Amino acid sequence: MFIGLDLGTSGVRALLVDEAGTAINSAEAALTVAHPYPGWSEQNPADWVAAAMTALRQLCEDTPEEMARLRGIGLSGHMHGATLLDQSGEVLRPCLLWNDTRSHDQAQRFDALPGMRQISGNIVFPGFTAPKVAWVAENEPEMFAKLAKVLLPKDYLSYWLTGRMVSDMSDSAGTSWLDVGARAWSPELLAATGMRVDQMPELVEGSDVIGSMRPDLAADLGLPEGVQVVAGGGDNAASACGVGALSEGDGFVSLGTSGVLLAARDGFAPRAESAVHTFCHAIPGAWYQMGVILAATDSLNWLSRIVGARPAELTAELGDTIAGPGNLRFLPYLSGERTPHNDSAVRGAFVGLDIASTRTDLTRAVVEGVSFALRDNLEALRLTGADLSRVLAIGGGARSRYWIEVLATVLNMPVDLPEQGDFGAALGAARLAICGVTGAAPSDVMTKPPVAETILPRADLRAAYDDAYAAFAASYPTLKAMQ
Ligand SMILES: Nc1ncnc2c1ncn2[C@@H]1O[C@H](COP(=O)(O)OP(=O)(O)O)[C@@H](O)[C@H]1O
Ligand SMILES: O=C(CO)[C@@H](O)[C@H](O)COP(=O)(O)O
Protein backbone atom coordinates (compact mmCIF):
# COMPACT_ATOMS: atom_id res chain seq x y z
CA MET A 1 0.00 0.00 0.00
CA PHE A 2 1.10 3.57 -0.75
CA ILE A 3 -0.15 7.05 0.16
CA GLY A 4 -0.06 10.24 -1.88
CA LEU A 5 -0.12 13.14 0.57
CA ASP A 6 -1.08 16.35 -1.24
CA LEU A 7 -0.81 19.69 0.54
CA GLY A 8 -3.32 21.74 -1.48
CA THR A 9 -3.95 25.40 -0.75
CA SER A 10 -7.49 24.63 0.39
CA GLY A 11 -6.70 21.39 2.24
CA VAL A 12 -4.59 18.28 2.72
CA ARG A 13 -5.65 15.16 0.87
CA ALA A 14 -4.29 11.68 1.66
CA LEU A 15 -4.97 9.06 -1.01
CA LEU A 16 -4.37 5.39 -0.21
CA VAL A 17 -3.64 3.19 -3.24
CA ASP A 18 -2.61 -0.43 -3.73
CA GLU A 19 0.55 -1.66 -5.50
CA ALA A 20 -1.17 -1.15 -8.88
CA GLY A 21 -2.01 2.46 -8.02
CA THR A 22 -5.74 1.78 -7.67
CA ALA A 23 -7.48 4.02 -5.11
CA ILE A 24 -8.53 2.24 -1.91
CA ASN A 25 -9.54 5.15 0.32
CA SER A 26 -8.96 8.86 0.81
CA ALA A 27 -9.25 11.44 3.57
CA GLU A 28 -9.19 15.23 3.60
CA ALA A 29 -8.68 18.01 6.11
CA ALA A 30 -9.40 21.65 5.24
CA LEU A 31 -6.93 24.54 5.48
CA THR A 32 -7.51 28.27 5.47
CA VAL A 33 -5.36 31.07 4.06
CA ALA A 34 -4.70 34.32 5.95
CA HIS A 35 -4.66 37.58 3.97
CA PRO A 36 -3.71 40.05 6.75
CA TYR A 37 -2.96 42.85 4.26
CA PRO A 38 -3.70 43.28 0.54
CA GLY A 39 -1.25 41.12 -1.46
CA TRP A 40 -0.29 38.97 1.56
CA SER A 41 -1.14 35.28 1.66
CA GLU A 42 0.09 33.05 4.48
CA GLN A 43 -0.39 29.66 6.14
CA ASN A 44 1.08 28.25 9.33
CA PRO A 45 3.20 25.11 8.79
CA ALA A 46 1.82 23.78 12.10
CA ASP A 47 -1.63 23.75 10.43
CA TRP A 48 -0.25 21.61 7.56
CA VAL A 49 1.05 19.07 10.09
CA ALA A 50 -2.25 19.05 12.01
CA ALA A 51 -4.23 18.58 8.77
CA ALA A 52 -1.88 15.82 7.56
CA MET A 53 -2.25 14.03 10.93
CA THR A 54 -6.05 14.31 10.73
CA ALA A 55 -6.10 12.83 7.22
CA LEU A 56 -3.64 10.02 8.08
CA ARG A 57 -5.51 9.13 11.29
CA GLN A 58 -8.75 8.99 9.30
CA LEU A 59 -7.20 6.49 6.87
CA CYS A 60 -5.94 4.41 9.83
CA GLU A 61 -9.43 4.40 11.37
CA ASP A 62 -11.30 3.58 8.14
CA THR A 63 -8.85 1.12 6.57
CA PRO A 64 -6.69 -0.36 9.38
CA GLU A 65 -5.75 -3.59 7.57
CA GLU A 66 -4.56 -1.80 4.46
CA MET A 67 -2.68 0.85 6.50
CA ALA A 68 -0.89 -1.93 8.38
CA ARG A 69 0.62 -2.88 5.00
CA LEU A 70 1.73 0.68 4.16
CA ARG A 71 5.11 0.71 2.35
CA GLY A 72 5.55 4.27 1.15
CA ILE A 73 4.29 7.87 1.23
CA GLY A 74 4.88 10.32 -1.63
CA LEU A 75 4.45 14.08 -1.20
CA SER A 76 3.01 16.85 -3.32
CA GLY A 77 2.20 20.43 -2.44
CA HIS A 78 1.46 23.98 -3.50
CA MET A 79 4.64 25.44 -4.92
CA HIS A 80 6.95 28.40 -4.23
CA GLY A 81 6.05 28.94 -0.53
CA ALA A 82 8.89 30.23 1.67
CA THR A 83 8.99 28.14 4.86
CA LEU A 84 11.80 29.60 6.96
CA LEU A 85 13.54 27.51 9.63
CA ASP A 86 16.16 28.38 12.23
CA GLN A 87 19.23 26.34 13.18
CA SER A 88 17.18 23.96 15.32
CA GLY A 89 14.57 23.36 12.62
CA GLU A 90 11.91 25.60 14.24
CA VAL A 91 9.60 27.61 11.96
CA LEU A 92 10.47 31.33 12.12
CA ARG A 93 7.27 32.88 10.74
CA PRO A 94 4.13 31.91 8.77
CA CYS A 95 4.88 30.63 5.25
CA LEU A 96 4.55 33.19 2.46
CA LEU A 97 2.48 31.37 -0.18
CA TRP A 98 2.63 31.16 -3.98
CA ASN A 99 -0.09 33.81 -4.37
CA ASP A 100 1.56 36.28 -1.98
CA THR A 101 2.65 39.25 -4.07
CA ARG A 102 4.15 41.59 -1.46
CA SER A 103 7.66 41.08 -2.88
CA HIS A 104 6.90 42.89 -6.13
CA ASP A 105 9.94 45.23 -5.83
CA GLN A 106 12.38 42.46 -4.90
CA ALA A 107 11.10 40.33 -7.82
CA GLN A 108 11.62 43.16 -10.30
CA ARG A 109 15.14 43.73 -9.00
CA PHE A 110 16.09 40.04 -9.20
CA ASP A 111 14.46 39.63 -12.61
CA ALA A 112 16.84 42.27 -14.00
CA LEU A 113 19.96 40.45 -12.71
CA PRO A 114 22.25 39.21 -15.48
CA GLY A 115 21.79 35.49 -16.11
CA MET A 116 18.69 35.17 -13.94
CA ARG A 117 16.17 34.37 -16.70
CA GLN A 118 18.72 32.32 -18.68
CA ILE A 119 19.75 30.08 -15.76
CA SER A 120 16.39 29.74 -14.00
CA GLY A 121 14.50 29.62 -17.34
CA ASN A 122 11.78 31.86 -15.89
CA ILE A 123 10.80 35.41 -15.02
CA VAL A 124 11.27 36.04 -11.30
CA PHE A 125 7.61 36.40 -10.32
CA PRO A 126 6.76 37.95 -6.93
CA GLY A 127 5.17 34.62 -5.93
CA PHE A 128 8.44 32.71 -6.37
CA THR A 129 10.56 31.89 -3.33
CA ALA A 130 13.71 34.02 -3.77
CA PRO A 131 12.04 37.47 -3.81
CA LYS A 132 9.87 36.52 -0.83
CA VAL A 133 12.93 35.63 1.24
CA ALA A 134 14.49 38.96 0.15
CA TRP A 135 11.33 40.72 1.39
CA VAL A 136 11.85 39.07 4.77
CA ALA A 137 15.53 40.09 4.75
CA GLU A 138 14.56 43.72 4.14
CA ASN A 139 11.48 43.96 6.34
CA GLU A 140 12.08 41.44 9.13
CA PRO A 141 15.89 41.45 9.46
CA GLU A 142 15.73 39.79 12.90
CA MET A 143 14.02 36.76 11.27
CA PHE A 144 16.40 36.69 8.34
CA ALA A 145 19.40 36.74 10.70
CA LYS A 146 18.16 33.44 12.18
CA LEU A 147 17.46 31.80 8.80
CA ALA A 148 19.24 28.45 8.51
CA LYS A 149 17.11 26.62 5.90
CA VAL A 150 14.39 27.48 3.34
CA LEU A 151 11.95 24.66 2.67
CA LEU A 152 9.10 24.43 0.18
CA PRO A 153 5.72 23.56 1.75
CA LYS A 154 5.60 19.84 0.90
CA ASP A 155 9.27 19.53 1.94
CA TYR A 156 8.32 20.79 5.40
CA LEU A 157 5.90 17.85 5.58
CA SER A 158 8.60 15.38 4.53
CA TYR A 159 10.93 16.95 7.15
CA TRP A 160 8.18 16.36 9.73
CA LEU A 161 7.76 12.77 8.49
CA THR A 162 11.47 11.85 8.33
CA GLY A 163 13.57 14.51 10.09
CA ARG A 164 15.45 15.10 6.79
CA MET A 165 15.50 18.39 4.86
CA VAL A 166 15.32 17.42 1.17
CA SER A 167 13.62 18.82 -1.92
CA ASP A 168 12.91 17.55 -5.42
CA MET A 169 13.71 19.17 -8.79
CA SER A 170 10.14 20.03 -9.81
CA ASP A 171 9.39 22.08 -6.70
CA SER A 172 12.88 23.61 -6.46
CA ALA A 173 12.49 24.82 -10.06
CA GLY A 174 9.99 27.39 -8.74
CA THR A 175 12.40 29.08 -6.33
CA SER A 176 14.47 31.15 -8.86
CA TRP A 177 17.58 29.52 -7.33
CA LEU A 178 17.68 26.38 -9.50
CA ASP A 179 19.56 25.93 -12.76
CA VAL A 180 16.48 24.33 -14.28
CA GLY A 181 18.26 22.93 -17.35
CA ALA A 182 21.08 21.38 -15.28
CA ARG A 183 18.81 20.28 -12.37
CA ALA A 184 21.16 21.71 -9.69
CA TRP A 185 21.23 24.69 -7.31
CA SER A 186 22.84 27.63 -9.11
CA PRO A 187 25.73 29.12 -7.11
CA GLU A 188 25.44 32.31 -9.25
CA LEU A 189 21.73 32.81 -8.56
CA LEU A 190 22.12 32.07 -4.85
CA ALA A 191 25.01 34.51 -4.48
CA ALA A 192 23.25 37.20 -6.54
CA THR A 193 20.20 37.04 -4.26
CA GLY A 194 22.14 37.01 -0.99
CA MET A 195 21.72 33.31 -0.16
CA ARG A 196 24.06 30.38 0.53
CA VAL A 197 23.81 26.81 -0.71
CA ASP A 198 23.83 25.48 2.89
CA GLN A 199 20.49 27.30 3.36
CA MET A 200 19.00 25.06 0.65
CA PRO A 201 17.79 21.48 1.20
CA GLU A 202 19.59 18.57 -0.46
CA LEU A 203 18.26 17.98 -4.01
CA VAL A 204 16.85 14.67 -5.30
CA GLU A 205 14.52 13.55 -8.10
CA GLY A 206 10.81 13.27 -7.29
CA SER A 207 10.85 9.46 -7.37
CA ASP A 208 13.80 9.17 -4.93
CA VAL A 209 13.35 7.76 -1.42
CA ILE A 210 14.47 10.32 1.15
CA GLY A 211 14.19 8.24 4.33
CA SER A 212 11.92 6.27 6.66
CA MET A 213 9.04 7.64 8.69
CA ARG A 214 10.18 8.67 12.21
CA PRO A 215 9.59 5.70 14.56
CA ASP A 216 7.79 7.91 17.14
CA LEU A 217 5.39 9.17 14.47
CA ALA A 218 4.81 5.65 13.10
CA ALA A 219 4.07 4.45 16.66
CA ASP A 220 1.71 7.38 17.29
CA LEU A 221 -0.25 6.56 14.12
CA GLY A 222 -0.04 2.78 14.69
CA LEU A 223 1.83 2.29 11.40
CA PRO A 224 4.52 -0.31 10.71
CA GLU A 225 8.15 0.75 11.12
CA GLY A 226 10.21 1.54 8.03
CA VAL A 227 7.52 3.20 5.86
CA GLN A 228 9.56 4.87 3.09
CA VAL A 229 9.01 8.57 2.32
CA VAL A 230 9.51 9.57 -1.33
CA ALA A 231 10.32 13.18 -2.27
CA GLY A 232 7.34 13.69 -4.64
CA GLY A 233 6.77 16.90 -6.59
CA GLY A 234 5.30 20.36 -6.74
CA ASP A 235 1.55 19.96 -7.15
CA ASN A 236 1.48 20.63 -10.90
CA ALA A 237 4.29 18.17 -11.69
CA ALA A 238 2.62 15.65 -9.38
CA SER A 239 -0.71 16.18 -11.16
CA ALA A 240 1.08 15.55 -14.46
CA CYS A 241 2.21 12.19 -13.00
CA GLY A 242 -1.38 11.56 -11.87
CA VAL A 243 -2.83 12.04 -15.35
CA GLY A 244 0.09 10.44 -17.24
CA ALA A 245 1.22 13.73 -18.83
CA LEU A 246 4.84 12.69 -19.27
CA SER A 247 5.79 13.58 -22.82
CA GLU A 248 5.29 16.11 -25.65
CA GLY A 249 1.63 16.63 -26.58
CA ASP A 250 0.29 15.56 -23.14
CA GLY A 251 -1.32 18.21 -20.97
CA PHE A 252 -4.00 19.19 -18.52
CA VAL A 253 -6.04 22.12 -17.34
CA SER A 254 -6.42 22.47 -13.57
CA LEU A 255 -9.23 24.42 -11.92
CA GLY A 256 -7.95 24.64 -8.35
CA THR A 257 -7.27 27.69 -6.18
CA SER A 258 -4.93 28.60 -9.05
CA GLY A 259 -5.73 27.91 -12.71
CA VAL A 260 -3.10 26.03 -14.70
CA LEU A 261 -2.68 25.00 -18.33
CA LEU A 262 0.23 22.56 -18.48
CA ALA A 263 2.11 20.94 -21.36
CA ALA A 264 4.72 18.19 -20.84
CA ARG A 265 7.98 18.79 -22.79
CA ASP A 266 10.67 16.33 -23.82
CA GLY A 267 13.43 18.92 -23.43
CA PHE A 268 14.29 22.17 -21.68
CA ALA A 269 13.12 24.95 -24.01
CA PRO A 270 12.43 28.05 -21.91
CA ARG A 271 11.02 31.29 -23.23
CA ALA A 272 10.87 33.35 -20.07
CA GLU A 273 9.55 36.56 -21.65
CA SER A 274 6.25 34.81 -22.49
CA ALA A 275 5.58 34.60 -18.71
CA VAL A 276 5.14 30.86 -19.22
CA HIS A 277 6.83 28.78 -16.50
CA THR A 278 9.43 26.20 -17.57
CA PHE A 279 10.09 23.73 -14.74
CA CYS A 280 11.65 20.29 -14.18
CA HIS A 281 9.15 17.44 -14.22
CA ALA A 282 8.93 15.24 -11.12
CA ILE A 283 10.41 12.34 -13.11
CA PRO A 284 14.08 12.37 -14.14
CA GLY A 285 15.11 13.82 -17.51
CA ALA A 286 11.82 15.57 -18.29
CA TRP A 287 10.46 19.14 -18.10
CA TYR A 288 7.10 20.86 -18.52
CA GLN A 289 5.72 24.30 -19.29
CA MET A 290 2.63 25.96 -17.91
CA GLY A 291 0.67 29.17 -17.72
CA VAL A 292 -0.69 30.03 -14.28
CA ILE A 293 -3.49 32.30 -13.15
CA LEU A 294 -3.63 33.15 -9.47
CA ALA A 295 -7.35 32.96 -8.75
CA ALA A 296 -9.40 30.25 -10.51
CA THR A 297 -11.65 28.56 -7.93
CA ASP A 298 -10.33 31.24 -5.57
CA SER A 299 -12.43 33.72 -7.60
CA LEU A 300 -15.48 31.47 -7.17
CA ASN A 301 -14.69 31.11 -3.45
CA TRP A 302 -14.54 34.89 -3.15
CA LEU A 303 -17.98 35.20 -4.80
CA SER A 304 -19.27 32.40 -2.62
CA ARG A 305 -18.24 34.28 0.55
CA ILE A 306 -19.82 37.51 -0.72
CA VAL A 307 -23.18 35.97 -1.65
CA GLY A 308 -23.28 33.32 1.11
CA ALA A 309 -23.65 30.19 -1.04
CA ARG A 310 -21.25 27.26 -1.50
CA PRO A 311 -19.21 27.16 -4.76
CA ALA A 312 -20.97 23.96 -5.85
CA GLU A 313 -24.39 25.63 -5.31
CA LEU A 314 -23.32 28.57 -7.45
CA THR A 315 -22.14 26.46 -10.39
CA ALA A 316 -25.22 24.19 -10.05
CA GLU A 317 -27.37 27.27 -10.78
CA LEU A 318 -25.68 27.51 -14.20
CA GLY A 319 -26.84 24.03 -15.21
CA ASP A 320 -24.77 21.63 -17.29
CA THR A 321 -24.89 23.10 -20.78
CA ILE A 322 -23.76 26.47 -22.11
CA ALA A 323 -25.89 28.82 -24.19
CA GLY A 324 -23.41 31.57 -25.11
CA PRO A 325 -21.49 34.15 -23.06
CA GLY A 326 -23.21 36.67 -20.81
CA ASN A 327 -22.99 40.45 -21.14
CA LEU A 328 -21.18 40.79 -17.84
CA ARG A 329 -17.38 40.40 -17.88
CA PHE A 330 -15.14 39.44 -14.97
CA LEU A 331 -11.37 39.97 -14.86
CA PRO A 332 -10.11 37.40 -12.33
CA TYR A 333 -7.14 39.35 -11.01
CA LEU A 334 -8.17 39.24 -7.34
CA SER A 335 -4.59 38.42 -6.29
CA GLY A 336 -2.85 40.06 -9.28
CA GLU A 337 -1.76 38.00 -12.27
CA ARG A 338 1.13 35.85 -13.56
CA THR A 339 0.70 34.53 -17.11
CA PRO A 340 0.77 36.36 -19.46
CA HIS A 341 0.81 39.79 -17.79
CA ASN A 342 3.15 39.30 -14.80
CA ASP A 343 1.26 42.04 -13.01
CA SER A 344 1.05 41.71 -9.25
CA ALA A 345 -0.46 45.20 -8.84
CA VAL A 346 -3.54 44.82 -11.05
CA ARG A 347 -6.80 43.87 -9.32
CA GLY A 348 -10.00 42.32 -10.64
CA ALA A 349 -13.18 43.90 -11.96
CA PHE A 350 -16.71 43.26 -13.15
CA VAL A 351 -17.48 45.19 -16.33
CA GLY A 352 -21.07 45.74 -17.42
CA LEU A 353 -22.99 45.34 -14.14
CA ASP A 354 -26.67 46.03 -14.74
CA ILE A 355 -29.50 46.87 -12.36
CA ALA A 356 -30.93 43.49 -13.39
CA SER A 357 -27.70 41.50 -12.84
CA THR A 358 -28.32 38.43 -10.68
CA ARG A 359 -26.08 36.19 -8.64
CA THR A 360 -26.22 33.63 -11.46
CA ASP A 361 -24.96 36.30 -13.87
CA LEU A 362 -22.05 36.97 -11.50
CA THR A 363 -21.21 33.24 -11.29
CA ARG A 364 -21.35 32.90 -15.06
CA ALA A 365 -19.05 35.93 -15.45
CA VAL A 366 -16.56 34.40 -12.98
CA VAL A 367 -16.56 31.03 -14.77
CA GLU A 368 -16.12 32.76 -18.14
CA GLY A 369 -13.47 35.21 -16.89
CA VAL A 370 -11.32 32.37 -15.49
CA SER A 371 -11.73 30.49 -18.79
CA PHE A 372 -10.71 33.55 -20.82
CA ALA A 373 -7.62 34.00 -18.62
CA LEU A 374 -6.74 30.36 -19.34
CA ARG A 375 -7.10 31.11 -23.07
CA ASP A 376 -4.52 33.89 -22.48
CA ASN A 377 -2.31 31.11 -21.08
CA LEU A 378 -2.86 28.94 -24.16
CA GLU A 379 -1.80 31.81 -26.45
CA ALA A 380 1.33 32.31 -24.28
CA LEU A 381 2.14 28.58 -24.28
CA ARG A 382 1.93 28.52 -28.07
CA LEU A 383 4.69 31.18 -28.20
CA THR A 384 7.03 28.70 -26.48
CA GLY A 385 6.41 25.96 -29.05
CA ALA A 386 4.33 23.90 -26.62
CA ASP A 387 1.12 23.08 -28.39
CA LEU A 388 -1.84 21.21 -27.03
CA SER A 389 -4.69 19.80 -29.08
CA ARG A 390 -6.65 18.27 -26.20
CA VAL A 391 -6.37 18.38 -22.41
CA LEU A 392 -7.68 16.53 -19.39
CA ALA A 393 -9.48 18.59 -16.72
CA ILE A 394 -8.66 18.20 -13.03
CA GLY A 395 -9.21 20.19 -9.81
CA GLY A 396 -12.33 21.05 -7.83
CA GLY A 397 -13.76 23.35 -10.55
CA ALA A 398 -13.86 20.43 -13.01
CA ARG A 399 -16.88 19.14 -11.07
CA SER A 400 -18.89 21.74 -12.99
CA ARG A 401 -19.69 20.39 -16.46
CA TYR A 402 -20.83 23.88 -17.47
CA TRP A 403 -17.40 25.30 -16.64
CA ILE A 404 -15.67 22.59 -18.69
CA GLU A 405 -17.93 23.22 -21.69
CA VAL A 406 -17.06 26.92 -21.51
CA LEU A 407 -13.36 25.99 -21.35
CA ALA A 408 -13.56 23.54 -24.26
CA THR A 409 -15.23 26.20 -26.40
CA VAL A 410 -12.94 29.06 -25.34
CA LEU A 411 -9.77 26.95 -25.77
CA ASN A 412 -11.26 25.38 -28.92
CA MET A 413 -10.15 21.87 -28.02
CA PRO A 414 -11.69 18.71 -26.59
CA VAL A 415 -11.48 18.50 -22.81
CA ASP A 416 -11.49 15.02 -21.26
CA LEU A 417 -13.11 14.43 -17.89
CA PRO A 418 -11.59 11.47 -16.06
CA GLU A 419 -13.82 8.82 -14.56
CA GLN A 420 -14.85 9.61 -11.00
CA GLY A 421 -11.97 9.44 -8.60
CA ASP A 422 -8.65 11.02 -7.89
CA PHE A 423 -6.42 11.71 -10.83
CA GLY A 424 -4.65 14.80 -9.59
CA ALA A 425 -1.69 15.63 -7.43
CA ALA A 426 -2.43 13.08 -4.68
CA LEU A 427 -2.43 10.20 -7.18
CA GLY A 428 0.73 11.57 -8.79
CA ALA A 429 2.43 11.65 -5.39
CA ALA A 430 1.31 8.07 -4.68
CA ARG A 431 2.64 6.98 -8.09
CA LEU A 432 6.00 8.64 -7.34
CA ALA A 433 6.05 6.65 -4.08
CA ILE A 434 5.38 3.40 -5.97
CA CYS A 435 8.25 4.15 -8.39
CA GLY A 436 10.60 5.12 -5.55
CA VAL A 437 9.91 2.11 -3.34
CA THR A 438 9.48 -0.64 -5.96
CA GLY A 439 11.86 0.66 -8.64
CA ALA A 440 9.07 0.51 -11.28
CA ALA A 441 9.50 2.70 -14.37
CA PRO A 442 7.38 5.91 -14.37
CA SER A 443 6.02 5.11 -17.84
CA ASP A 444 4.63 1.79 -16.53
CA VAL A 445 3.03 3.30 -13.41
CA MET A 446 1.89 6.74 -14.66
CA THR A 447 -0.73 5.71 -17.19
CA LYS A 448 -3.48 7.98 -18.48
CA PRO A 449 -6.80 7.77 -16.60
CA PRO A 450 -9.95 6.30 -18.13
CA VAL A 451 -12.01 9.10 -19.67
CA ALA A 452 -15.64 9.30 -18.55
CA GLU A 453 -16.67 12.02 -21.00
CA THR A 454 -15.02 14.15 -23.65
CA ILE A 455 -16.51 17.63 -23.82
CA LEU A 456 -16.18 19.09 -27.30
CA PRO A 457 -16.03 22.78 -28.20
CA ARG A 458 -19.49 24.00 -29.20
CA ALA A 459 -19.06 24.91 -32.88
CA ASP A 460 -22.37 26.85 -32.86
CA LEU A 461 -21.17 29.11 -30.03
CA ARG A 462 -17.45 29.43 -30.79
CA ALA A 463 -17.69 32.77 -32.58
CA ALA A 464 -19.68 34.28 -29.70
CA TYR A 465 -17.13 33.11 -27.11
CA ASP A 466 -14.25 34.25 -29.35
CA ASP A 467 -15.79 37.75 -29.50
CA ALA A 468 -16.24 37.75 -25.74
CA TYR A 469 -12.61 36.63 -25.30
CA ALA A 470 -11.45 39.47 -27.56
CA ALA A 471 -13.39 41.95 -25.40
CA PHE A 472 -11.88 40.37 -22.25
CA ALA A 473 -8.34 40.61 -23.64
CA ALA A 474 -8.91 44.25 -24.64
CA SER A 475 -10.09 45.13 -21.12
CA TYR A 476 -6.78 44.40 -19.37
CA PRO A 477 -4.81 47.46 -20.60
CA THR A 478 -7.73 49.75 -19.70
CA LEU A 479 -8.06 48.17 -16.26
CA LYS A 480 -4.33 48.53 -15.69
CA ALA A 481 -4.40 52.18 -16.74
CA MET A 482 -7.23 52.86 -14.26
CA GLN A 483 -5.36 51.47 -11.21
N1 LIG B 1 -19.12 21.75 -8.05
C1 LIG B 1 -18.14 22.66 -8.05
N2 LIG B 1 -18.12 23.63 -9.00
C2 LIG B 1 -17.12 24.53 -9.04
N3 LIG B 1 -16.13 24.57 -8.14
C3 LIG B 1 -16.10 23.66 -7.17
C4 LIG B 1 -17.10 22.64 -7.08
N4 LIG B 1 -16.79 21.88 -6.00
C5 LIG B 1 -15.64 22.38 -5.46
N5 LIG B 1 -15.24 23.45 -6.15
C6 LIG B 1 -14.05 24.29 -5.90
O1 LIG B 1 -12.89 23.49 -5.86
C7 LIG B 1 -11.98 24.06 -4.92
C8 LIG B 1 -10.98 23.02 -4.48
O2 LIG B 1 -10.28 22.55 -5.58
P1 LIG B 1 -8.84 21.87 -5.43
O3 LIG B 1 -8.45 21.44 -6.80
O4 LIG B 1 -8.90 20.84 -4.35
O5 LIG B 1 -7.97 23.12 -4.94
P2 LIG B 1 -6.50 23.24 -4.27
O6 LIG B 1 -5.66 22.11 -4.84
O7 LIG B 1 -6.03 24.59 -4.70
O8 LIG B 1 -6.64 23.14 -2.78
C9 LIG B 1 -12.86 24.59 -3.83
O9 LIG B 1 -12.22 25.65 -3.14
C10 LIG B 1 -14.11 25.03 -4.58
O10 LIG B 1 -14.07 26.40 -4.88
O1 LIG C 1 1.88 28.83 -8.03
C1 LIG C 1 1.48 27.83 -8.57
C2 LIG C 1 2.23 27.19 -9.68
O2 LIG C 1 3.29 27.98 -10.17
C3 LIG C 1 0.20 27.20 -8.11
O3 LIG C 1 -0.31 26.29 -9.03
C4 LIG C 1 0.40 26.57 -6.76
O4 LIG C 1 1.24 25.42 -6.93
C5 LIG C 1 -0.90 26.28 -6.03
O5 LIG C 1 -1.67 25.28 -6.55
P1 LIG C 1 -3.19 24.89 -6.16
O6 LIG C 1 -3.32 24.91 -4.68
O7 LIG C 1 -4.09 25.80 -6.89
O8 LIG C 1 -3.28 23.48 -6.71
From TrEMBL:
UniProt KW Flavoprotein keyword: no
First and last residue of the signal peptide: none
Site (described: Important for activity): D6
Residues holding substrate: M79, H80
Catalytic function, reaction form: D-xylulose + ATP = D-xylulose 5-phosphate + ADP + H(+)
Domain Carbohydrate kinase FGGY C-terminal per the UniProt entry, residue ranges: 252-434
Keywords: ATP-binding, Carbohydrate metabolism, Kinase, Nucleotide-binding, Transferase, Xylose metabolism
Ranges for domain Carbohydrate kinase FGGY N-terminal: 1-242
Domain of life the protein comes from: Bacteria
Catalytic residues (UniProt): D235 (proton acceptor)
EC category: transferase
EC number: 2.7.1.17
One Pfam family from the record: FGGY_C
GO molecular function: D-xylulokinase activity
Physiological role: Catalyzes the phosphorylation of D-xylulose to D-xylulose 5-phosphate.
Family classification: Belongs to the FGGY kinase family.
Classification via NCBIfam families: XylB
Name recorded for this polypeptide: Xylulose kinase
Organism whose genome encodes this protein: Sedimentitalea todarodis
